[in-house]
Specification:
The complex is a heterodimer.
Chain A: H1 26-29, E1 33-34, E2 41-47, H2 67-72, E3 85-92, E4 103-112, E5 115-123, H3 129-141, E6 145-148, H4 151-165, E7 177-179, H5 180-188, H6 197-205, H7 220-230, H8 237-262, H9 275-284, H10 288-301, H11 305-319, H12 322-334, H13 338-351, H14 355-370, H15 377-398
Parallel strand pairs in A: 3-6, 6-7
Antiparallel strand pairs in A: 1-2, 2-5, 3-4, 4-5
Chain B: H1 5-10, H2 13-16, E1 19-25, E2 32-34, H3 41-49, E3 54-56, H4 57-67, E4 71-74, H5 82-96, E5 101-105, H6 109-126, E6 134-136, H7 146-152, E7 155-158, H8 160-167, H9 175-179, E8 181-186, H10 194-213, E9 219-223, H11 230-238, E10 242-245, E11 255-260, E12 264-266, E13 271-272, H12 275-287, E14 293-296, H13 300-312, E15 320-323, H14 329-341, E16 346-349, E17 364-368, H15 374-382, E18 391-396, H16 401-408, H17 411-414, H18 428-441, E19 444-445, H19 455-467, E20 471-474, E21 477-480, E22 499-504, E23 507-513, H20 514-520, E24 526-529, E25 532-540, E26 545-550, E27 555-575, E28 579-599, E29 605-610, E30 616-627, H21 629-637, H22 652-662, E31 680-683, H23 693-696, E32 702-705, H24 707-716, H25 722-738, E33 745-753, E34 759-766, H26 774-795, H27 817-830
Parallel strand pairs in B: 4-9, 4-10, 5-7, 5-8, 6-7, 8-9, 11-18, 14-16, 14-17, 15-16, 17-18, 22-26
Antiparallel strand pairs in B: 1-11, 2-3, 12-13, 19-21, 20-21, 22-23, 24-25, 25-26, 27-28, 28-29, 28-30, 30-34, 31-32, 33-34
The chains are: A alpha/beta, B alpha/beta.
């Protein structure tokens, strides 16, 4: 017992950790090569096929990336084809962030000759990081842009930290980057309970990740630390499966979103629920006419009618097509929609100077809102204020 | 005709008669020198515009040190223009190379904000553009605005906690900042002592290491108003060589320091008027002048009581304000501004205004009761004084032992240096935690040292961390191998805890920390805030809120608290012939069990209510020793043991009843009538001073007193018990052996201690949860501590006790010097090796 041992009283593990015993090494379990003689970085390459992806239920196609998406991510649309995209997903030693967190495995995916190739770069020891950074820098330079799921706020800042610590003269964060998470939020955020990759797989992609061979993200750091102690690779196999499936889900997501944007009519009946989301994204990107067509189609086909009506009415308002927006609001007022009452009241007050009608509409909006639970007190206060102003205007007119 | 503050007091005989000491420090004129040529012309113009055409000699000296690339300590006293000593080099550097960066660390957020505004003014005067040049980076900064500060601000105002928790563990986000970092300013450096200072020293080691990654070698500019042994201290804290500037050449007006002892209201019993009431009298007197007054009180409640009283007696309520922690930040900023603009005349405050927040010049400072340390007294006194004008500081003594001692021995207050700042950066507990942070920030290579900690030591700690699986070693390097965030495991300050929000209906009134919430805002408590009184209707432990309702003040409340020790585990134990020592883990449980309702002014007890609040628990390391039965018996025989319960003698209850009847059920001091049971019967000469209870209980030695007067009377004839004296002495000496500060280690003397079979014991325990090794270290130093104690007592020239040895003796009481000396003789004799018995 060392003379400092009293400091860690109570923190010593019950069993003495097994250290550096000859566990089954990575190369016995996973096809691949060490990147250098010191065996600190291991590269395992796999082509995503039905065989290599047990459980996968969706067919993996080469995505035709929508020009809208490319524009959204800030790419120059003329110069990019799918082979220029590098899909990326990292596995790390912690979720709390900070300079002590390593990316012990970096998964990269790309299309070559119509196939999706996944490369896993794995640190058999943290001491291999300088080498990993060097190899990946080369790799990044071969591609034009990155595709990730939540990479903008998680993977890339973390990689940037690692690159800075290794003193590299390259920063992966500066590459053009399409992050599918914020995009998915715009599509499905209002309809799904959440937009994690797992939730998207369950509700939208139906991709069939096999829970038996998967591993929850929160368990991953501990598995790696145990590997460092025991050098036993077997428990980490599922982390590779997990990462591989994340990559494939990204491709599926990109394919689906692209098709929804470019060829909404080809969507299956199941996938049409997110057409209003597509329309919204198109409108946000300035493709107002495409958005209008899509919203109208939604209303006709009975897809999220009330949401589509509302968004289309504001789209018309934005384009200055007052007659069309007014028509939609008048229908919506019959369905007791507060927003429509307010918009019509605005028109009545400011344009038509029909204060009495504006009063009635505002009164109706107040009645609707007061009947809701919970009451939106801020909105109610605004409505009261509006009503007061209108009553005042009416009285002045009488004088 | 307007009198100056001093004359107002000296000409009022009813006040002047109570002044026991009046010391005057003569005017000192400033020595000026011209602005250095190296100063950028823009800066020279800006200085001229703010009216600065010259510098004090010491300021120029500081600039020269800094310009020559030396780390510089500026310790030139309160209000000597220290801020300019760092502001000028920073701005100069910024004008010459706008890409350079500076980090400014302040011990509190309020101070950081305040100093930022000051620099902003100078920047404004220079016409330097760029709103993003300065940024405060503290816990209050919304996440969305952090990136802007990191990337754009040339001057980052922060605090050590943020450096530790937010900046260093994410240093790559600060890469650009570190690369261009030129200066680090550390203000009020005397604050970094004890455990807090030892933590900070390690944060600085981590900081230096990270700066190294970015090839930056920043210069430290360090300031303090009250620092003893300045250079030695900062060189230990920063582990670099410092140039120092200590001679103050600024103008100094005549400084008057008064010690004011409140008059006796009962000569026979030695009871004096309360310090608070006399402070009020003085403050009211001073309100007649145009000057500004600051009143320092000890507690937040004392501030509110003084404030309420003072406001009741002035016409314009806005002239008098309170200031303390718990007020909302914008309220505080508002008060500071009004003080500077002269819109407020009197502010009643806790030590919250002690540090260098800019409030402009104050004419008079009143300290209601001894602030507790010489450092604090000097800081508070230093608040008085405007450029070159006469200033006045008044210490109003309370009836407490320490205060009354200072009245008799003013030299203790006037001639002594501030307490020495002690730190121990190599405390193993603190080191172990910071090394984890350091390795999280950057892997350690074999052979790497950590500040002044040699590579061999670092290695030992790394091996320890390997054992518990926190780090992984390969290729001569230790890597962090845990998914934790080690900085979260350390709080640099032990007093960190949850904040509760005080609400009146929907409005946020103020803030309070958890432990204080139990003390001051338990259900039913009367809570005073900025002179308004409220009653607490509920305390919500889950939502961390306190609901208040306005309340007409007719009484106030005082929490009743109970502290008990519980032994969790004994780590070490050694038995000597006449005493035993232990080290182990203790649970210190403090519970607010109820509260008393007290009548405003008279402190008469109106009622008592029980409360059911969860205890606050501190599980920490402790070290204690027990006096053996034989030792105590011997002291008893020598009449040097006075910790036994008073034995009032046969028939005491009947006797007491007859005394109450004789005094017609009235307090013989204040005349307050009271029911039979609430009236105490008091021994004029203490029971302990008689050889038998029969002599002590003669009716002429007995009088009836109300509880309030009884407490006041007891203070004056207090017989310091030997055990209390020993506790006092060892409590004062221990920090010197451990290099910690007085608040890092608590000490408690118990005549019948529950943790050692009701034997008399003295208990030391770490104030930081879990302990930082102080008590454990003390366990091995105990015998040495006894020897030092004995030396101190033998060498002290006082009669029977003073603050420098076993504690002050009461005005008519008896000090504990003799019993303590005897106890220590027995303890030291009994701990020689030959007397040892196996445990």
């Amino acid at each position: 017992m060392s003379k400092l041992d009293y400091l860690i009283k109570g923190e010593l593990p019950a069993e003495k950790p097994i250290r550096n015993t000859a566990g089954i090494p990575i190369h016995s379990l996973l096809d691949g090569n060490y990147c250098s003689p010191d065996k600190l970085v291991y590269l395992a390459t796999v082509t995503a096929t039905a065989d290599s992806m047990p459980g996968l239920k969706r067919k993996l196609l080469v995505p035709e990336v929508s020009p809208y998406l490319l524009r959204l991510a800030g790419f120059d649309r003329e110069k990019i084809c799918v082979e220029d995209l590098l899909f990326i997903d990292t596995e790390t030693t912690g979720l709390s962030g900070g300079t002590g967190t390593l990316a012990f495995m970096v998964g990269l995916g790309f299309f070559a000759a119509g196939e999706f190739i996944i490369e896993h770069y794995f640190l058999t020891d943290p001491a291999g990081e300088p080498e990993l950074v060097r190899i990946l820098t080369e790799k990044f330079r071969q591609f034009t842009a990155l595709v990730s799921f939540n990479g903008k706020s998680y993977d890339l800042p973390l990689l940037e930290t690692r690159w800075i610590i290794q003193g590299a003269d390259f920063n992966p964060r500066t590459l053009p980057h399409l992050d599918l998470l914020p995009l998915s939020r715009r599509f499905w955020g209002r309809t799904l309970p959440g937009c994690s990759l797992g939730q998207l797989e369950a509700y939208i992609l139906h991709s069939g990740r096999n829970p038996a061979t998967d591993v929850p993200g929160s368990k991953i750091p501990q598995l790696y630390f145990e590997y460092l102690q025991t050098r036993e690779f077997a428990p980490l196999i599922n982390v590779f499966y997990h990462n591989r499936f994340d990559m494939v889900s990204m491709v599926l997501l990109l394919t689906l979103i692209s098709r929804a944007l470019d060829k909404p009519h080809t969507l299956t009946a199941d996938d049409r629920v997110f057409l209003p989301g597509v329309a919204r994204l198109l409108a946000d990107m300035g493709a107002l006419e495409s958005a209008r067509v899509l919203y109208s189609a939604c209303i006709e086909q009975g897809i999220a009618v009330s949401q589509s009506t509302r968004e289309l009415s504001f789209l018309y308002k934005r384009c200055g097509r007052r007659a069309e927006s007014r028509r939609l609001w008048e229908t919506a007022v019959l369905n007791n929609k507060t927003y429509a009452c307010i918009e019509l009241a605005k028109l009545a007050e400011h344009r038509e100077k029909e204060y009495r009608r504006a009063c009635e509409l505002t009164g109706k909006a107040l009645a609707i809102e007061n009947g809701l639970s919970p009451v939106n007190s801020k909105l109610v206060a605004e409505l009261r204020h509006r009503l007061q102003r209108l009553v005042h205007k009416l009285e002045r007119r009488r004088d | 005709m307007t009198f100056s503050q001093l004359e107002q007091i000296l000409e009022d005989a009813s006040l002047a008669g109570n002044i026991t000491t009046h010391s005057v420090k003569k005017i000192e004129s400033a020595t000026f020198t011209k602005l250095p040529d190296s100063l950028h012309p823009v800066l020279v113009r800006a200085l001229c515009e703010t009216g600065i055409k010259n510098l004090y000699v010491h300021q120029r000296e500081a600039l020269a040190h800094i310009a020559s690339g030396q780390h510089t300590l500026i310790s030139t006293g309160v209000a000597s223009g220290k801020s300019l000593c760092y502001q000028l080099p920073l701005l100069n550097q910024f004008l010459e190379a706008p890409a350079t960066r500076a980090l400014l660390l302040f011990p509190t957020k309020a101070l950081g904000n305040d100093q930022k505004e000051n620099l902003q003014k100078l920047l404004g005067a220079s016409g330097i553009k760029g709103a993003g040049t300065m940024g405060v980076y503290d816990g209050d900064l919304p996440a969305g605005r952090r990136e802007a500060v990191r990337n754009k601000a040339a001057f980052v105002f922060s605090n050590p906690d943020m450096l530790h928790l937010g900046i260093l563990p994410h240093h790559t986000r600060w890469a650009g900042f570190f690369k261009n970092l030129k200066y680090v300013v550390v203000d009020e450096v005397h604050m970094y002592h004890g455990v807090f200072g030892s933590h900070f020293a390690n944060v600085l080691r981590r900081f230096q290491r990270i700066a190294g990654i970015y090839h930056s070698n920043p210069h430290f500019i360090v300031t303090s108003a009250t620092l003893t042994g300045g250079r030695e201290f900062v060189e230990k804290l920063f582990e670099v060589k410092f140039a120092t500037v200590e001679k103050n050449t600024s103008a100094c007006g005549e400084k008057h320091f008064l010690i004011y002892n409140p008059p006796l209201v009962n000569r026979e019993l030695g009871i004096r008027r309360p310090a608070a009431e006399e402070s009020l009298r003085l403050a009211r007197k001073l309100l007649r002048t145009k000057g500004q007054t600051l009143i320092f009180a000890h507690t937040r409640k004392a501030v509110e009581l003084l404030l309420t009283e003072l406001r009741n007696r002035v016409g314009e309520k806005g002239l008098v304000c309170g200031y303390r922690s718990g007020y909302l930040p914008h309220e505080r900023r508002d008060i500071e501004q009004k003080l500077r603009r002269g819109e407020i005349r009197t502010v009643v405050t806790t030590n919250a205004l002690e540090l260098g927040i800019d409030i402009g010049g104050i004419d008079t400072v009143i300290m209601s009761g001894y602030p507790g340390s010489i450092t604090s007294t000097k800081q508070q006194t230093g608040r008085a004084g405007r450029k070159g004008r006469r200033s006045l500081a008044i210490f109003v003594a309370s009836g407490g032992l320490m205060d009354q001692y200072l009245v008799k021995h003013p030299e203790y207050l006037l001639d002594r240096n501030p307490e020495q700042a002690l730190i121990n950066p190599d405390n193993p507990y603190i080191l172990l935690r910071h090394l984890q942070c350091a390795i999280f920030e950057k892997a350690f290579t074999e052979g790497e040292s950590f500040g002044n900690l040699c590579a061999q030591k670092v290695r030992e700690f790394m091996q320890l961390l390997e054992k518990i699986g926190r780090v992984h070693k390969s290729r001569q390097t230790w890597f962090w191998a845990s998914d934790g965030y080690p900085a979260n495991e350390i709080s640099l300050r032990t007093a960190a805890s949850d904040t509760y929000i005080l609400q009146n209906a929907e409005n946020v009134v103020g803030l309070i920390d958890r432990d204080s919430a139990f003390w001051f805002t338990h259900p039913g408590a009367v809570y005073l805030h900025n002179g308004e009184s409220y009653q607490v209707s509920s305390l919500n432990l889950e939502k961390k809120t306190v609901s208040l309702k306005p309340f007409q003040l007719s009484y106030y409340t005082q929490a009743v608290c109970d502290t008990r020790f519980e032994l969790m585990e004994t780590y070490e134990h050694q038995r000597f012939r006449e005493w035993e020592k232990f080290a182990g883990q203790l649970k210190v449980e403090t519970r607010v069990t109820g509260f008393k309702k007290l009548k405003w002014h008279m402190r008469e007890l109106l009622g008592r209510e029980e409360l059911d609040l969860p205890p606050s628990q501190l599980i920490t390391a402790g070290c204690w020793f027990v006096l053996g039965v034989e030792l105590v018996n011997r002291l008893r025989q020598e009449k040097l043991w006075n910790n036994d319960a008073n034995r009032y003698g046969h028939g005491w209850e009947d006797l007491a009843a007859s005394i109450r009847e004789r005094d017609r059920y009235r307090c013989t001091n204040c005349g307050e009538s009271a029911k039979n049971s609430t009236l105490h019967v008091h021994h004029k000469l203490p029971l302990r001073s008689f050889s038998s209870s029969a002599l002590a209980n003669r009716p002429e030695n007995l009088i009836s007193l109300c509880p309030v007067c009884h407490t006041a009377a007891e203070k004056q004839i207090y017989i310091q018990s030997g055990l209390a004296g020993l506790t006092y002495l060892l409590g004062r000496l221990a920090p010197f052996s451990l290099l910690c500060s007085g608040t890092d280690l608590h000490i408690f003397g118990e005549a019948r201690s529950a943790i050692c079979e009701d034997q008399p014991a003295v208990i030391f325990y770490d104030s930081a949860p879990g302990g930082v090794g102080l008590s454990e270290k003390l366990y091995s130093l105990l015998e040495g501590l006894f020897n030092r104690g004995l030396e101190v007592v033998s060498d002290c020239e006082c009669r029977s006790g003073c603050p420098a040895c076993v504690g002050p003796e009461a005005e008519n009481g008896v000090g504990a010097k003799a019993p303590v000396a005897q106890m220590l003789k027995y303890l030291t004799a009994a701990s020689t090796a030959s007397d040892q018995e196996p445990a």
